[in-house]
Design goal:
By secondary structure, the protein is α+β, with helices and mostly antiparallel strands. It has 5 helices and 22 strands. A 7-stranded antiparallel sheet has the order 5-15-16-20-19-18-17. A 7-stranded antiparallel sheet has the order 8-9-10-11-7-6-14, with helices on one face.
């Protein structure tokens, strides 16, 4: 390896000496041309004369007929001569000097360029590391197709915003959710259950502002009614917490089933429930129809629309079985049709509206309409339409360690 490097270095040195000699000879030629031009001698003096005269080095000028096909051809003076044509000598010398020097410069520059082009790259160039190349990665996208339904809001009064799709990674101890539509025997509303295994409690973990009343005569374990804090004039329906004998915790919320002035049949309905085989909970009534059951959301796709004057609308599609519980605590709920699907519109005490509809395939759609746009809720619901395949930006979330 060392011998090959020595030969390579010797070769580069020889080529460098040769190239330097070429440049030196070209420089000497340039100096000779300049000196000869000043004296009127030397090569490269150009004599511009009328057609028909020829000057031969060392002889006098004689007239010769011009070629008929080239009547205007100029005459080129070869070698040194004393012209007798009558033209000004100083003018010819000045022209010859300029052109001769220019020709020599061109030769010098060309030769130097050739010599430099033949030089081998320096050892530093050979050993230099390759430059780093930065590649811009495209933004992450998620393609929505048949597996991920999506909708749009076609309204001139709403400006669409960005779409987010954070990925969720449910833990092993995530609760199960189950929802019912209950109609009959004086009941007309919804029941929502959250089932958590291995979570026996001695008392509901709620804030001090909530009111907790323990129920008597529970079939097994212990149960409580938990009333959330509220204003004196506002009505707040309670939730029912049931710590079961097997160590599981069942928490029930409702909409439209509780009454502060009449018999609460829904409490008897809940306490008569049993653990099921195909579903987590079985209610002891044919009036209760299961509308959702499963785990928490693994996909939540949301887009916010902003009103041109005020207010916002949140459009969401999720696969979570807890989606119908968006109607919990609504003051009133009425059936609606959203994108040709069955749904419900809930109005809350503060005036905002929540809409839930069954998209199919385990998917649910939701609309959250702020109080400022509540009066336009029906028109907003009618503007919801399904889309085909779409590409939306994704907001990935790293899985837990």
């Amino acid at each position: 390896m060392s011998e090959r490097n020595d030969r390579r270095s010797a070769g580069r040195a020889d080529r460098t000496t040769e190239h330097d000699a070429v440049i030196e000879r070209l420089r000497s030629a340039l100096e000779e041309v300049a000196m000869g031009a000043e004296l009127g001698t030397g090569p490269g003096v150009v004599d511009v004369r009328p057609a028909g005269s020829v000057t031969v080095a060392g002889r006098t000028t004689v007239d010769a007929p011009a070629a008929s096909e080239e009547p205007d051809a100029p005459t080129i003076a070869i070698g040194a001569t004393a012209s007798t044509s009558g033209h000004d000598r100083s003018g010819r010398h000045r022209t010859g000097t300029i052109l001769g020097v220019a020709a020599a410069c061109a030769a010098l520059i060309g030769g130097a360029t050739w010599a430099l082009s033949q030089r081998s790259p320096s050892p530093v160039d050979e050993g230099a590391p390759a430059p780093d190349v930065t590649v811009e990665e495209p933004p992450m996208t998620t393609i929505l197709g048949a597996g991920d339904p999506w909708f749009t809001l076609a309204s001139a009064n709403l400006v669409p915003g960005a779409i987010s799709r954070p990925e969720r990674f449910p833990a092993d101890n995530e609760p199960l959710f189950q929802s019912w539509r209950v109609v009959g025997d004086g009941l007309d509303g919804f029941l929502f259950a959250t089932i958590t295994a291995d979570r026996a409690i001695e008392r509901p973990e709620v804030g001090d502002a909530s009111t907790v009343d323990e129920l008597a005569g529970v079939p097994e374990g212990r149960a409580w009614l938990v009333f959330p804090p509220s204003d004196a004039d506002a009505f707040a329906a309670p939730s029912l917490w049931w710590s079961r004998a097997d160590g599981s915790l069942w928490v029930f919320d409702e909409q439209g089933l509780y009454s502060a002035v009449s018999s609460n049949i829904w409490i008897d309905l809940v306490l008569g429930s049993e653990q099921g085989s195909g579903v987590p909970i079985v209610l002891p009534s044919a009036n209760a129809t299961v509308i959702s059951v499963g785990i928490t959301s693994t996909v939540v796709i949301t887009q916010q629309y902003t009103g041109t004057t005020a207010g916002t609308v949140d459009l969401t599609v999720t696969d979570g079985a807890a989606a119908p519980s968006a109607l919990a605590q609504a003051v009133t709920v009425e059936p609606v049709t959203v994108a040709d699907r069955e749904g419900w519109k809930g109005t809350y005490g503060d005036g905002h509206v929540e809409v839930v509809w069954n998209v199919g395939g385990g998917w649910w759609g939701l609309l959250g309409i702020s109080t400022e746009l509540a009066e336009q809720a029906d028109g907003i619901i009618a503007a919801v339409a399904p889309t085909g395949d779409a590409v939306i930006p994704a907001t990935p979330v790293a899985p837990p360690p």
